[in-house]
Design a protein that fits this description.
The protein is mainly beta and 253 residues long. Helix content is 6%, strand content 62%.
Length: 253
């Protein structure tokens, strides 16, 4: 009788467990799959060579240097917000004239000036987010540090001043255009070749510095505009958090 009663209860219990009862509990420590994606944030950076051509009011000569940019965007929205730093130095000396009085004699001296511009700017770029060929338009605003060093010489005489140095902060703003070609430099499509041009509207730098020439010390004044055209070429890297990790290489890593 006891055996029969046990069998009578065992049948319903087995049927209650049936195929719908899990064989084991889920593992709370299970890791997310390797291809899990993050928020749709896009990051990009570039390193470019830059050539500067002075515009009206800028007494400098052609300059050469480098530019570093960093930006970020969201999903497929065709806008990128970023920052840049540029360092561009003159490839030669700009020359202007100064009227001086040395002793009791009035002379017309030459001034040879070498300048360097340091740009610190924020930019907003209108650009397709995921095209292989990505043209863009941009606007930027920021500041520039004008750094100058010069000497004063008297023509026809072996007379030259000590080296004079100085710097001045000026504002900057402007607009630009360019294009990125993505995927030319690596198969994963995370690197790009970048071409761009900028029209910089810069403020006027003003320096007044003591200058020693022929054992006389006097003040010399330098006034220089900083507007220029910038031509840039370089490489860029892209990282998209919304892509699987194995596809979101940055700078070819």
């Amino acid at each position: 009788a006891t055996l029969a009663l046990g069998c009578a209860f065992a049948g319903p219990i087995a049927r209650a467990q049936g195929p719908h009862m899990p064989g084991s509990l889920p593992d709370d420590d299970a890791q997310a799959p390797d291809d899990a994606v993050g928020p749709p944030l896009r990051f990009e950076a570039s390193l470019m060579a830059a050539l500067s051509a002075p515009l009206a009011g800028n007494p400098d000569v052609v300059g050469f240097g480098f530019a570093v940019t960093y930006g970020m965007g969201w999903g497929d929205i065709p806008l990128t917000l970023g920052l840049d730093f540029m360092s561009i130095g003159s490839v030669g000396d700009a020359e202007d004239k100064l009227d001086l009085t040395l002793g009791e004699e009035s002379v017309r001296a030459d001034r040879l000036t070498h300048a360097r511009m340091l740009h610190f700017e924020a930019w907003l770029r209108l650009q397709p987010a995921h095209w292989h060929v990505r043209p863009y338009l941009e606007g930027f605003v920021g500041t520039q540090l004008y750094q100058a060093k010069y000497v004063v010489r008297v023509p026809g005489q072996s007379v030259q001043s000590d080296l004079v140095t100085g710097s001045d902060w000026v504002h900057s703003y402007g607009y630009g255009a360019g294009v990125e070609v993505v995927g030319l430099l690596n198969r994963s499509g995370t690197m790009s070749l970048t071409l761009g041009v900028r029209r910089v509207h810069g403020g006027t730098a003003e320096l007044t510095r003591p200058t020693t020439l022929a054992e006389q010390t006097f003040d010399t004044r330098l006034t220089a505009g900083t507007s220029a055209l910038l031509f840039m070429i370089g490489v860029g890297g892209h990282y998209d958090l919304s892509e699987p990790q194995q596809q979101s290489e940055f700078l070819g890593d």
